[in-house]
Amino acid sequence: MNPRTRQTLEFILDNLVWFMLVFVLVVFSILIPNYFQLGIFANIIEASSVLGVMSIGLALVIIAGHMDLSVESVAALSAMAVGILFCSSGIGLGIQLQPQWLMVPVSLLIALAVGGLIGVINGYLVVKVKMSAFIITLASYIWVRGLVLVISGGRSAQDLAPAIRWFAIQRLGGLPLTAWIAIACFIVFSLIMAKTPFGRHLVMIGGNETATFRAGIRVNRNLVIAFVLAGAIAGLAGWLLAIRTSGATANLGVGLLFNAFAAVVIGGVSLKGGVGTLPGVYAGVLLLSAINTAINLMGLPANFTQVIHGLLVLAAVLLDAFKQTIRQRLA
Amino acid sequence: MSEPLLVLDNVAKNYGAIEALKGISFSIGKGEVVALLGDNGAGKSTLVKIIAGGLEPTSGRMLFEGKEFLAKSPAEAKAAGIETVYQDLSLCTNVDVVANFFMGREITRKVLGIPVLDERAMEQVVQRALASAGTRIPSLRTNVEHLSGGQRQAIELNRFVHFGGKLVLLDEPFAALGVEQTRRGLDMIRQVASQGIGVVIITHIMQQAFQVADRIVVIRQGVVAGDVARNKTSPDAVINMITGETLAGAGPAN
Asked: H or E stretch including A275?
């Protein structure tokens, strides 16, 4: 095989999920009436912003060879914290800051801090106590959601301060600012993963933790940072969620974790760690969103979504195995 | 003997009630190649891990360049100038040759104050390092998982030759190499030593030890069973020390 074909093949394999996305969009555009509109495409991007942001954090930790099941609950807790402080009805305290715009950075910082704090706890337990990340974050998934119920008393907060809501309403190039935030996150974290020593080290830790330790990379420090980032990013997802729903309910975001997992796996991230890129994950998120939109447009019952997502995850895992065999042939 | 680079003084390591190392004392000079021999389970790898910062000794002390030394992590050992090539390969197979070569010490340039990987600079360095060692790897951008065992080991060997440091520990570095590559590896060791770098090589193959080492240290059941200059001993004598038939030449060589 000459180097050129090999390179082309490698390129296709590396970006397979993008080709799938394009393929699916083309097929839907042809087969489903009214699918091919700018508004629909904007909607696909818009609907995927919360899930997209959450998937970034999850992907970071999985690429580093670990796991974070707590992202969904963390997002809910951050959303609830923002909701309670800055909503004016329900259980909201309706805190007003002058000038109004000050509420934006303050609420954002609170959401990030809440997420980051739980990330610290997860990271510390995984790294220092050396327990399995799966168990630690499963516990966090449960107790953090419990905390949401406790602080909300099962009730909800509504009417988020307009200054914060502005992000969901204000549009730029046909997309709300919340969607741009998600896109910006993907760009920033893709660059971090691909271009900085920190990102490179996370990938290598996911590949062979012993080797990186022996090579003098501060594995524990990097892993804790990864967990903190995953938590903080989940906090950001919660902030976006609160903005989108203009408040917070006790069961906000339930089920997002599994969608995030699906997106990450479909995006080409291996659960074994060390494999996967963030642009791929974004394509995975968009793919899920594109399919949801198609289901809505066709008027199928929403319950079909879950069946299709499940099958997609299976397909993604099979595809991954298939890619491995092709790559072995290439080598 | 030249000026001692590393002195081990009664270094011991217990795993619970099991004494892996009962008290090891010997020294390595600058530019000296020491072959560390011993039967399976004699404690050679444990000793290497202690020097390299992967394990902490239970007792005893080490002097590195005349100063008290104890690496708490491989990062500290590396900072002090100790390079290690482990028996089981220490490569991340999910990234490419260049990333592995520079693992933990990537070349970066600042973009807006943020360190960014300088892939081109790193690739050039790797290309030169591998070319001068005569190692052929089709593409430096292929992931290591697609390379053969020999190619992988060549990456590790070239890595230590390139980064040098002051002391190099090699734990059975030639296990996966062919005849020609082994010969080249032994040449590399001599070349590294001639730059004044101390080398400790663990090997099972007597012939290799006699080809490359200045001094041969034998460990048996957690103690030094022999420490002799290469030109004052013979393979048969060394084998006897390893199996414990004689204790000839026991204790530190003076």
From this structure: none
Q: Which pLDDT belongs to residue A1?
A: 63
- What's A174's DSSP letter? T
Mean pLDDT in residue range B230-237? 80
Q: Determine the pLDDT at residue B252.
A: 46
Separation between Cα atoms, residue B232 and residue B228, nearest integer Å: 7
CB within 8 Å: B99 and A206: no
Calpha distance B25→A280 (Å, rounded):
54
Q: Which residues of A touch B117 (CB under 8 A)?
A: 195-197, 200
Kindly report, residue by residue over B122-174, the tens digit of the pLDDT.
999 998 888 876 777 878 888 888 887 778 877 888 888 788 788 888 888 77
pLDDT at B247: 54
Q: How many CB pairs under 8 A join A and B?
A: 80
Q: Does B90 touch chain A (CB under 8 A)?
A: yes
- Which residues on chain A are in Cβ contact (under 8 Å) with B160? none
Residue B235 tokens, joined:
């393979």
With an 8 Å Cβ cutoff, is B138 touching chain A?
A: no
Q: Is residue A330 a part of any domain in this protein?
A: no
Domain count across chain A: 1
| C-alpha dist (Å) from residue A54 to A61, A235, A287, A299 | 12, 8, 15, 28
The label of the residue with tokens 């329900």 reads A90
A82 domain-assigned? yes
CATH number for position A62: 1.10.3470
Which long-range contacts link B246-252 to residues 24+ away (Cβ below 8 Å)?
A: B250/B224, B250/B225, B250/B226, B251/B224, B251/B227, B252/B25, B252/B26, B252/B27, B252/B224, B252/B227
Domain contains A134: yes
Contact B92 A210 (CB under 8 A): no
Query: Rounded CA gap, A232 and A117, in Å?
Result: 8
The number of residues in chain A equals 331
Q: Which domain holds residue A221?
A: 40-325
pLDDT surpassing 70 at residue B248: no
pTM of the model: 0.87
A120 phi/psi in degrees, rounded to 5? -60, -45
Amino acid at B254: N
Q: Which of B89, B92, B139, B144 to mutate to test the interface with A (most CBs of A within 10 A)?
A: B92
CATH class belonging to B4-81+164-243: alpha beta
pLDDT value, residue B23? 85
User: Per the CB < 8 Å rule, is A215 touching B117?
Assistant: no
Below-50 pLDDT ranges, chain A: none
Contact flag A211-B90 (C-beta cutoff 8 Å):
yes
Q: What are phi and psi of B215, to 5 degrees?
A: -140, 150
Q: Which residues of chain B have a CB within 8 Å of the CB of A207?
A: 92-95
CB contact under 8 A, A211 and B103: yes
**Which of A191, A200, A203, A325 is the best substitution to test chain B (most B C-beta atoms within 10 A)?**
A200
**Residues A260/A54, Cβ–Cβ less than 8 Å:** yes
Whether A24 is covered by a domain: the verdict is no
Q: What is the pLDDT of residues B10-44, one digit of tens each?
A: 888 888 888 888 888 888 988 889 998 888 777 88
